[in-house]
Automatic annotation (TrEMBL):
<dbReference type="InterPro" id="IPR046348">
    <property type="entry name" value="SIS_dom_sf"/>
</dbReference>
<protein>
    <submittedName>
        <fullName>Putative phosphosugar-binding protein</fullName>
    </submittedName>
</protein>
<feature type="domain" description="SIS">
    <location>
        <begin position="8"/>
        <end position="133"/>
    </location>
</feature>
<dbReference type="Pfam" id="PF13580">
    <property type="entry name" value="SIS_2"/>
</dbReference>
<dbReference type="GO" id="GO:0097367">
    <property type="term" value="F:carbohydrate derivative binding"/>
</dbReference>
<dbReference type="GO" id="GO:1901135">
    <property type="term" value="P:carbohydrate derivative metabolic process"/>
</dbReference>
<dbReference type="InterPro" id="IPR001347">
    <property type="entry name" value="SIS_dom"/>
</dbReference>
Length: 133
C-alpha cells in the first residue's frame, strides 16, 4: 500500500472515530429533529455562506427525503452571484438575523435548525448560532 493510500485510509479512520465519539450529541440532535417532526414543525437548515449553501440544498426536496425541511437559501451568500459578493455578505455582522427573520425562523418554541458550515468562523455562522439559542 502506498504512503498516500495509507494516509488517506488513516484520515478516514480518524474521521470515523470522531463521529463515533460524537454519538451522544448526534443522538440528542436526532431526538430533537424527531420531536419537531412529530410536533408538525419544520426543520430549518442553513449553509451560511458560499459552498455551505450546498449542504442546505442537499436536504431540500430529495426523493425519499424529509418533507418538512425549510432550506434557507439566501441569494446573498449563494456563489452563483459571485464568490467575492458571497464572501463579503457572509462576513457582515447582523446579516444572519435579517435572513432568519425573512424565513420566519425562531418564531415558535421547539424549532430545530441545522447549520452547515465547514469552519464556523464567519459572522453569518456565529450570528446564526447566537440567534438559534
Amino acid at each position: 500500500m502506498s504512503t498516500e493510500t495509507e494516509t488517506y485510509r488513516d484520515g478516514i479512520i480518524n474521521l470515523l472515530q470522531t463521529i463515533h465519539e460524537g454519538t451522544p450529541v448526534i443522538e440528542k440532535a436526532a431526538e430533537a429533529m424527531a420531536k419537531a417532526i412529530m410536533d408538525d414543525k419544520l426543520i430549518h437548515v442553513i449553509g451560511p455562506g458560499g459552498h455551505s449553501n450546498m449542504g442546505a440544498e442537499e436536504l431540500l426536496w430529495r426523493a425519499g427525503g424529509l418533507a418538512p425541511i425549510n432550506a434557507i437559501l439566501d441569494p446573498g451568500t449563494n456563489l452563483i452571484h459571485g464568490a467575492k459578493r458571497s464572501n463579503v455578505i457572509e462576513r457582515t455582522p447582523g446579516y444572519a438575523k435579517q435572513v432568519l427573520d425573512a424565513y420566519r425562523v425562531g418564531k415558535e418554541p421547539g424549532e430545530v435548525i441545522i447549520i452547515v458550515n465547514a469552519y464556523g468562523v464567519n459572522a453569518m455562522s456565529i450570528d446564526t448560532v447566537l440567534e438559534a439559542k
